[in-house]
Specification:
Number of strands: 4
Strand content: 25-35%
Organism: Ardenticatena maritima
InterPro entries: Cu-bd (IPR000428), HMA_dom (IPR006121), HMA_dom_sf (IPR036163)
Number of helices: 2
Low-confidence stretches: none
Bound molecules: copper (II) ion
Largest sheet: 4 strands, antiparallel
CATH architecture: 2-Layer Sandwich
Protein name: Heavy metal transporter
GO molecular function: copper ion binding
Mean pLDDT: 98
Domain HMA: 2-67
Length: 71
């Protein structure tokens, strides 16, 4: 299991936060998602079969591309 923090500049309001959390939690292997509109960061805890690639692809698909992996 691992936890990663992503910079997601397109987070602009509470709806973005809700959408990201809802969509990512549906990805198999994702254990926890915390999106923050102030810092425009998303912290995801996941295990296989989820992967950074799958998370990045989903974020792209829903309109919130990851700009940078912070940690
Ligand atoms: Cu929004």
């Amino acid at each position: 299991m691992q936890t990663e923090t992503y910079a997601v500049p397109s987070i602009s309001c509470g709806h973005c936060v809700m959408t990201i959390q809802r969509e990512l939690k549906e990805l198999e292997g994702v254990v926890d998602v915390k999106a923050d509109q102030e810092t425009k960061r998303v912290v995801v805890t996941y295990d296989a079969p989820a992967s950074r690639e799958k998370i990045a692809a989903l974020m792209e698909e829903i309109g919130y591309p990851i700009a940078e992996v912070i940690a």
